[in-house]
Amino acid sequence: PLIAILAGDGIGPEVTAEARRVLDTLGLDLSYEEGLVGGAAYKAAGHPLPPETLDLARRADAILFGAVGDPDCDALERQFRPEQAILGLRKDLGLFANLRPAKLFAGLEDASALRPEIARSIDMVIVRELTGDVYFGAKGIRTTADGLREGHDEMRYDEAEIARIARVGFETARTRKGKLLSVDKANVLETSQLWRDVVIEVSADYPDVALSHMYVDNAAMQLVRNPGQFDVIVTGNLFGDILSDEASMCAGSIGMLPSAALNGSNKGMYEPIHGSAPDIAGQGKANPCAAILSAAMMLRHSLDLPEAADRIEAAVAAAILKGARTPDLGGTLSTSAMGDAILAELG
Amino acid sequence: PLIAILAGDGIGPEVTAEARRVLDTLGLDLSYEEGLVGGAAYKAAGHPLPPETLDLARRADAILFGAVGDPDCDALERQFRPEQAILGLRKDLGLFANLRPAKLFAGLEDASALRPEIARSIDMVIVRELTGDVYFGAKGIRTTADGLREGHDEMRYDEAEIARIARVGFETARTRKGKLLSVDKANVLETSQLWRDVVIEVSADYPDVALSHMYVDNAAMQLVRNPGQFDVIVTGNLFGDILSDEASMCAGSIGMLPSAALNGSNKGMYEPIHGSAPDIAGQGKANPCAAILSAAMMLRHSLDLPEAADRIEAAVAAAILKGARTPDLGGTLSTSAMGDAILAELG
Ligand SMILES: CC(C)[C@H](C(=O)O)[C@@H](O)C(=O)O
Ligand SMILES: CC(C)[C@H](C(=O)O)[C@@H](O)C(=O)O
Asked: Are strands A268-272 and A258-262 parallel, antiparallel or unpaired?
């Protein structure tokens, strides 16, 4: 299998290098090709997602993504900004299913802003739709009848888009506690009303999964009040963006959390949920765990190597439990020393 | 001044009655008129916002609102559901500025899911736009070219709508720490890009206020990680809905938090942020503090009686500090006994 390595900006290269070291240790039959992405690509090639990178991403079996975001690019027109690379890859490759696990690693109870007894209960997966919603609807700036500037972005989902992400939600629920919560704003939005209707229709195929519904404002509240009540949440692109970031912080450091973005045939892009952290880039201070755990998700979801994925996840958990800590976790280990600690657990 | 009392459903009438008792004690020159709203209005008059109620709301100088929401109405068509009364009043009366203070009352450190030292730092006001955004844009269910059902809702803001809520944000910041944070999703949404541009334009009139910007996903994360960093937040209707509920839970019980929805001439609707809580309705278990604090906001913002507002707020704080607790706060006081405790502080 071919893995595209898109390390990107800021701490992306450092953390991706550690993920690569971990993969190399496992003696798997993988080949790697690197591509430019984000601000680094803009600077070198004039576009955050150059044609060669897109071509590589299309050819690859899976993509290991670092992070993008570069203060030098903040003033660029939207189409040239680093984030557009992420949006472009998601859309072009049809990566509609974003899996965002959020759980507290044993030993990190003190890293969460929540009370330890509440933080300890966090273990959920947010299944976020990633190629539709107000992200990709018709948008622009127009002039009103009164001559005013008006910004507009259309939120939209058709029933096929809703049904396919709902199925990912139900399938994910089956591998866990058999409970699925769908989050919407059906009391205000027609898109949400259709979302809710279609999720209920799809639920007929999953009689073994208990489906419930919650409004997004209430979900944002409950994620703080009692996050342990959540197991698998399925939601749209915008609500998923907000809720998954909130959930990750409830679980402590964002330096620990991976994510996967999948299409319908197990091709995926794997990415830490943290950003490029330009303030600490190049200093060996970044936590590589999220990147390493993203590599584990890649093995599980795109390469059908669940045992190898389990081994990596167990190694990260063991290193953390023994006290390995980068600065974001209150420790002093460098990025590569944290990688060493995890490699040591892999034996 | 004429106060419209729209007590609504569930615990609405109980908590509004306590707010009324508090107002009566202050010997102010107010007259009251009651109107039906929500599920109660639907059952009695066939509509959640009957014409008589709308007429009363238009005539009144301010509206004291309880809560709406009734499980009996869940299956009704959207236009007849209780929440439509809230949306209808906001739109008809032009109540575009929603002020949502979130702070932890001294003594309630244990009510928050956050660590006490973090919870104690919470003291912010969220200024949410309330009559625009994806709430009120063109919406519906249409059929795609492929014959699929498609839900759509347009997010939109024009520059005048953005500028007037921005001004409320800047003015609010001036009464506090002189810091304003605008929350948007300008890396994805054109509406947000215009939002950001216009807020920056308006900031020229407020050189004494320090303006900053944050993406909504990051804000949802930071509200958990370090809520003490926030003072005044200005944002759109949808993001404000989500973030203000999240912030309220960081601050402990939603039973403590009031809100105001204002138009351009200080007319307002004042409402606890909690819902109708049908499970405990009629049992004297509801916390009346949010309703009482909403009445205080009414005195301050619509009736220009800031001293009376201060007195009420001080009385609530004192009662809480002395240990008065309804069940939501871990205590045993009934709704009216909590009212008594606050009245006792008013002397
Ligand atoms: C960078 C940005 C466009 C992106 C999003 O909003 O989807 C990010 O926040 C994420 O969640 O992956
Ligand atoms: C009831 C609902 C329509 C309303 C909203 O979304 O605005 C509520 O959640 C609120 O925040 O006042």
From this structure: antiparallel
Q: Can you give the pLDDT at residue A40?
A: 96
- CATH code: domain of residue A195: 3.40.718.10
CA distances from B43 to B49, B65, B67, B271 (A): 11, 18, 16, 22
B13-68 pLDDT, tens digit each: 999 999 999 999 999 999 999 999 999 999 999 999 999 999 999 999 999 999 99
Tens of pLDDT, residues A307-323? 999 999 999 999 999 99
- Cβ within 8 Å, pair A191-B153: yes
Q: Does A242 contact B216 at a Cβ distance shorter than 8 Å? A: yes
Query: Domain range spanning residue B130?
Result: 97-253
- B88 with B104, same domain: the answer is no
Q: Active site includes B267?
A: no
Give the separation between CA A75 and CA A70, rounded to whole angstroms: 10
- pTM of whole model > 0.85? yes
B258 assigned to some structural domain: no
Domain co-membership, A131 together with A215: yes
Q: Is the pLDDT of residue A171 over 90?
A: yes
Measured between CB atoms, does B85 come within 8 Å of chain A? no
Whether B304 maps to a domain, the answer reads yes
Is B241 marked active-site?
yes
Q: Which residue's CA is minimally distant from atom 2 of ligand 1?
A: A83
Looking at the fold, whether B48 and B109 belong to one and the same domain comes out as no
* Ligand 1 pocket check for A129: Cβ under 6 Å: no
B107 and B236, same domain (yes or no): yes
My answer on whether A240 and A285 are in the same domain is no
Three-class DSSP category at A177: coil
CB contact at 8 A, B153 and A191:
yes
